[in-house]
Specification:
With 236 residues, the chain is of the alpha+beta class. The chain has eight helices and ten strands.
């Protein structure tokens, strides 16, 4: 099962500062929430759509092995600190906790290291499945998530506002052009992608932040990325 988060940058900070804080401070803390099987941040830019200027600049995707694992979002002390930290970097964070039947995969590829082309956000019912079917017919991989059964205000009390998002589609283009866009859809390009948790364990980026990992790799200190060293320092 999956949780989707639509993230709006705090208006008075730069995109560069938003990226660094979400990835290396907020994201590192979120990677400690118990129960995450897979957590990835997508730093995105709106490139098309007829819903006006949609302010989301981040989309997070978290997968859980079970509903019991997802309980960490609501019950852990780390999650409480995540909500407290959100105003430091976000204007809004809309979390949609989805059931297994709310997600559908087309042409699925299980490799986790491939780059995501982007996301489509649908405001009209019925359009998402039609578009996903057309895209998959062209050979594109699409993960389609139905948001209608989830209430994001349960996370932090923040409402999605006047537009009730119906579905979000995550797509890998494979070099294909997008099928025609229906009414009520907004397209986001993925600019940067950071895997924070994989296989139930924080990645080096999820443990230390991307800048620290980049420094370790530049100097060639590969011992710092060994499992035993990370367990000794971070206890995970």
């Amino acid at each position: 099962m999956t949780t989707i988060a639509l993230i709006e940058r705090r208006a008075d900070i730069s995109r560069e500062l938003f990226t660094r804080y979400w990835r290396d401070v907020h994201g590192v803390m979120a990677a400690r929430i118990p129960g995450f099987d897979f957590y990835v941040q997508h730093h995105v830019t709106q490139i098309a759509g007829d819903n006006g200027d949609i302010a989301f600049e981040g989309i997070a995707v978290v997968r859980f092995a079970s509903e019991a694992d997802r309980a960490g979002l609501a019950q852990s002390a780390v999650a409480a600190q995540i909500v407290r930290d959100e105003p430091n970097v976000f204007t809004r964070a809309l979390l949609y906790n989805l059931e297994a039947q709310d997600s559908q995969h087309f042409n699925e590829n299980t490799a986790e290291d491939r780059d995501v082309a982007g996301f489509l956000l649908f405001a009209e019912p019925g359009a998402a499945k039609h578009w996903a079917s057309a895209a998959s017919g062209l050979g594109m991989e699409v993960h389609l998530h139905d948001l209608r059964g989830a209430d994001p205000s349960l996370w932090n009390g923040i409402s999605p506002g006047a537009v009730g998002w119906q579905s979000v589609a995550q797509y890998w283009s494979g070099g294909c052009a997008l099928p025609p866009l229906p009414d009520g859809v907004t397209v986001f390009r993925t600019d940067e992608r950071y895997v924070m948790v994989a296989g139930g364990r924080p990645t080096p980026t999820g443990l230390r932040g991307a800048d620290a990992v980049r420094t370790i790799r530049e100097i060639g200190a590969n011992n710092q990325l060994e499992h035993d060293v990370e367990t000794l320092i971070f206890g995970v």
